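Before anything else, study the sequence and fold tokens given here and see whether the fold suits the sequence. Record follows:
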Amino acid sequence: MAGLSLSELHEIALQRLRTLDQRYTRNRRSVVELLATAPAPATISELLNRDDVLAQSSTYRNLAVLEEAGVVHRIITTDDHARFELTEDVTGAHHHHLVCIGCGIVLDVTLPDRLEDDLHAALASAAASEGFSGEHHRIDLVGHCRACSESS
């Protein structure tokens, strides 16, 4: 979480939810904490397995509200289960994803600063040539994880 404490994270979530006239309920706090401590982007079933108090239907609704507030980001994969993580502007940790088309796992990957700078410049140039104003970028590399590559 790039040096954020849980209390700072909760304060950010609270403020963002307030802008939507939404409350920061116990269940929403739990979802944020689960995502903050997850080793990788998590599916809803993974979140539910880590907290037996959460109900599936309310977790779906809470994730949708947290996503709308800019606290949570949904990662669409090639399987039937979206993964969720805290947004980069909340955590301060810029990264990209490796998405396996075999098993659906999503792994975070951080590029070296120099490569990230070059990538940012190239994308800014491409955007400017089209009159597009970019705010940030996300890159997902889609392929096969080690386990799926070895089993095929």
The chain has two domains: 1-93, 94-152. The mean pLDDT is 92. The domain at 1-93 is CATH 1.10.10.10 (Arc Repressor Mutant, subunit A).
